[in-house]
Every structure is written in C-alpha cells, then in structure tokens.
Amino acid sequence: MKALELSHITTRYQQATVDGFKIFYREAGRKSAPTILLLHGFPTSSHMFRNLMPALADLYHVVAPDLPGFGFSDAPDRKRFRYTFENLAKIINLFTETIGLKNYAIYVFDYGAPVGLRLALAHPERITAIISQNGNAYEEGLSQGWNPIQKYWKDPTPENRAALREFLTPEATKWQYLHGVQDTTLVAPEAYELDSALLARPGNDEIQLDLFLDYASNVALYPKFQEYFRTKVPPMLAVWGKSDPFFLPPGAEAFKRDNPGAEVRFYDTGHFALETHHQEIAGAIRDFLGRKVATQAQVA
Predict the structure, then answer these.
(1) pTM over 0.85
(2) How many domains does the chain have?
(3) What CATH number does the domain containing 125 carry?
C-alpha cells in the first residue's frame, strides 16, 4: 500500500476544547470523505473503536470522541458539570461544531445511543444514517439486568445507589466484555483493564452513579426517538451482539416497526461485539452505507 494511502487510514489522537473542557478524540480518513461519528458507551471510551476505524478509514472520515467523564476526556467535578445525558449530548454537539462536522452518520453503542439520538432530534438535517450496535431505543430491548438500576430510578435512596457500585468493579467490567462471547481469546484484556483503571479514578464512581440515575431520562425519550424514526426515516442498520446481557435482540428488531427499511444483523457474541466481530461489522457498514447513502445522495 502506498504511503499516501496509509496516511489516510492511520488513526490520529487529538483533543478539542469544548465549552472549556478537553474532549479527546480519535480521527482517521480523509476529511473530505463522508463522516461517521462513533459514540461509545459504558464503561468504555473511543478505545472500543480502535479496530473498526482502520477498517473504514479508506472510504470514510471516522471520528470517535470520549464522552465527558470517560476515557481521556476531562471529567469535570460534579459541582461544575451536571452529569446527565442531555448535557453529554450538548457537549458532543458542540464538539461536532468545533471540529467542523457538517453532516455525518452516527454509530451508536450503549450510552452512545441516547447521546446520538438526541443529536438527531436536535439536528435531523445533519444525520445521514444511523448504525446502532447494541444501542437501544425500545423498552422491549431492556433485559432484567436493568432491574437494579430501574429500582434506583423509582426510589433513589442512598441504599439503592450504593447497590449499583457492583457494576463499577473490575470483575463486572470484565464480565461485560466476556459474557456471551464464544471465543474469549479474541477479547483483548487491555480493553477491560483500561476501562477498569479509568473507572477507578477518584470521583469517577459518583459520575457513573449519576448517569445510572439519569438513564431514566433516555427511556422517557423512547417515544420521541421512535417518532423520529417514523417521520425522518433515516437509513438505519442494527448490528447486534445477540447474547448482550443488557440490550436484547427484540430491541434491534423493533427498529423495523417504525422504520420498515431498517436492516438488522445479529452476531454470535455479546455486548462488546467489536471485540470479536469488527471485521464483519465493518463489512456490513461498508455495504450498507455504500447502498443507502449513495442512493440518498442521488435522490437529493
């Protein structure tokens, strides 16, 4: 491969100042190419896209920020910044404007789904497509694994908050990566070890517990997300680890109820599907965007 071609697929590690906060992000591909904004979930960061980005960067401009409180972005004190999904979305919206993104497809995973779908509600004209990888927008997609968190929503006592600390342990993080995976030797241990190290930073536990509580605001927005799917009919692809202990396959199938043209593909893996199936998912994205976004451009 020519050196010039390699320069386009090489990932660069950068930061932008957004509303006074440092937002770390990974970027690869030609800036003139169609953009995909990659939005991570709990308890990870843009590191989860380390294998996917080079697999797309020859054709696409791929950008993966770390949400505030995650990865290598700033984690401002809770007295300075209220950790809600609405505020995360506002920062990421400002981030896209700061680095000059005009329109983009969104790849949404876990927490990235309510963040990205808020961007779509606020600026539907910017969204060229939605790729949901275990990024839920339907109540039937929520497993019983959410029961302790739902209990906290209904009764936000100190006792119910403390019970959720189990989700923040290294053992719980490793379990999220390995549950439902057929061949665990494909999962890089540095992925869950990095997440655990970042979760262990002083004060980060309280940030995560705040977001557990606020996740109820995402469920309350499900009807608006679904209305967006029906009225705007964005090109949609769901690529789903079918053994996800948190977001069930019915949540992926439900996209077709509101957007009949949505495409759904299941993979025999767990929550962090990119750890084991990034090549297959990259192939699905290339095929999907090659057909759907090209057709959309011709119609426009």
Answers:
(1) yes
(2) 1
(3) 3.40.50.1820
Residue 82 covered by a domain: yes
| Catalytic residue, candidates 40, 47, 179, 271 | 271
| Contact residues for 11 (Cβ-Cβ < 8 A; gap 6+) | 26, 27, 28, 50, 53, 54, 57
- Tell whether 174 is covered by a domain: no
In sequence order, the β-bridge partners of residue 28 are 62
Task: For residue 287, give every residue at least 6 positions away whose Cβ sits within 8 Å of its Cβ, in sequence order, or none.
Answer: none
pLDDT tens sequence across 213-233: 999 999 999 999 999 999 999
Within a domain: 160: no
Q: Quick check: is 179 catalytic?
A: no
Structural domain boundaries enclosing 127: 3-143+217-299
- Establish if 150 belongs to a structural domain: no
Q: Tokens standing for 141?
A: 């997609």
